[in-house]
Amino acid sequence: MAAFIEMIGVEKQYATRSGAQAALRPTSLEIGAGEFVSIVGPSGCGKTTLMKMVAGLLACTRGEIRIDGVPVHEPPDGVGMVFQTPTLLRWRTVLDNVLLPAAAGRRPRARYEPIARDLIRLVGLEGFAEHYPRELSGGMQQRVAISRALLLEPRLLLMDEPFGALDAMTREEMNLELQRIWNERPKTVLFITHSIDEAVFLSDRVVVMTARPGGVRAVLDIELPRPRTLHVREHPRFVEYVGRIRDLIFSNQRKSEEAR
């Protein structure tokens, strides 16, 4: 599979009063077009920093990131982002929140409104287009955020802990919904999560990061049939993947603590 995202010796350091603070050690990774790849690791290991660099929101201290062969120096076209909180505008309806990227880019509403309405239907919110965020549950608000990220038909979807604030049952429901949407509208997805189960359930591959300063410790291919139901979590191979990832994370944390 040809690389769609290339991270080549990427490093990130922040300037502090006591000197340069390393957030990411030299990191290299390739992600193929259409892959669903999750990143897991200890808190503070640089997962979000890495995603922001892919999004062009942070510059690399060293190394280079390319998307479809083009170096990333600023936010590239064709990238949608979903964050942990939906960040919907409370004075705009569901439809107008989904249309926000088109409005911000001064694109014609007449062209994008049918796309927005189709996305609202796709995420299971048909009939809620004229509702306001205060009238929606947390899971429904996150569906609006996903629709908004998909409006301009991005080739790459970046998702930073999008379901972390949801209760367990809603989170499982959103996992199923995201898988269904990805199956219907295939695109490359880079997904950050603290949930090992969630990463294994959703992904083609899971990237396990080391403790800060973060780096790639291991990449696991998730060889489970699709589409996946929640019952796949009972599959012996699923349990094995979760156990391997947990061991990689916590053994690394112990080594990091012992080295301090």
Quick structural gist:
This protein has helices at 47-54, 94-98, 100-104, 109-122, 138-150, 168-184, 196-202, 236-259, and strands at residues 3-16, 19-32, 36-40, 62-67, 70-71, 79-82, 156-160, 188-192, 205-209, 216-221. The chain has 260 residues and is α/β, with parallel strands linked by helices.
Cα end-to-end separation: 40 Å
- Architecture per CATH nomenclature, i.e. the level-2 architecture of the largest domain: 3-Layer(aba) Sandwich
Shape: globular
**What is the CATH class designation of the largest domain?**
Alpha Beta
Q: Looking at this structure, what is the CATH superfamily of the largest domain?
A: P-loop containing nucleotide triphosphate hydrolases
Please name the CATH topology of the largest domain.
Answer: Rossmann fold
Largest sheet: 6 strands, mixed
Helix fraction by DSSP (H/I, runs of at least 4)? 25-40%
| Integer count of domains | 2
Classify the beta-strand content into a percent band. 25-35%
* Secondary structure: number of strands: 10
Helical/strand content category? alpha/beta
Low-confidence stretches: none
In N-to-C order, the SSE pattern is EEEHEEEHHHHEHEHEEH
> Counting H and I runs of at least 4 residues, what is the number of helices?
8
Average predicted local confidence, pLDDT = 92
Strands ordered across the widest β-sheet: 6-7-8-3-9-10
Please tell me how large the radius of gyration is. 19 Å
